[in-house]
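Weekly structure sync - notes
Attendees: PM, LS, DV (DV joined late)
Agenda: review two folding runs queued last week.

Item 1: First target. Sequence and structure tokens pasted below for the record.
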Amino acid sequence: MFYFREQRGSLEESLRTLVTLKDWPELVAHIRRLFSLFPVAEEEISVEPYGYDARIGWQTYIVTIRGQGVAGFCTEINSKPAAETQMPPPREIAGNGSGAS
């Protein structure tokens, strides 16, 4: 299992879109739902290392769609069954307590 969040104007807004997905096919299906106004081929989706985000405790990967830009961000995609994977929730956003940073 892994987390995916959509690209938004702020981290707080992005975390409101947080979903837990189980594998690559589920990510592809989720992105196709998000971008349902135009077809997205699986080979147009890429996931690349982006860096550690200390605000939420993620080793972050950027998810892009060729020709469209950034779809969102995720933790490392893991194909293990959910029962074998223990994933902690993202940490609270550091800052003023409202979640804004």
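Item 2: Second target, run right after the first with the same settings.
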Amino acid sequence: MLGTRIDKTTQLSYCYGVLLKAHSLSSPLPDSDKDDGLQDQLLDANEREWTKKIAAAEPEQERFRVLIQQLVVDFHEDTLKDHNAISEIELVGPRH
């Protein structure tokens, strides 16, 4: 998947979500000096392998950041937001 074309907003959102999840899991937790297997629970084997590959490819990570940022800018500048545009931007928003 590294370097491949992103064709759909859902694909971009999914990949960026996996990156964010992996990043938050790799950040050290306060008073925690061991891996409790949380990454194994939250990411499947393919996602873990992909995040390992992309971790070594900073330009690829930046590409995802730029694509997400451009999607948000385009949405903000679009004065005629239809249902599809709103649905797409919801995909990249914060999840609760």
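Discussion on item 2: The helical segments are 9-26, 38-42, 45-55, 58-77, 83-92.
Action: LS to circulate a short write-up before next sync.
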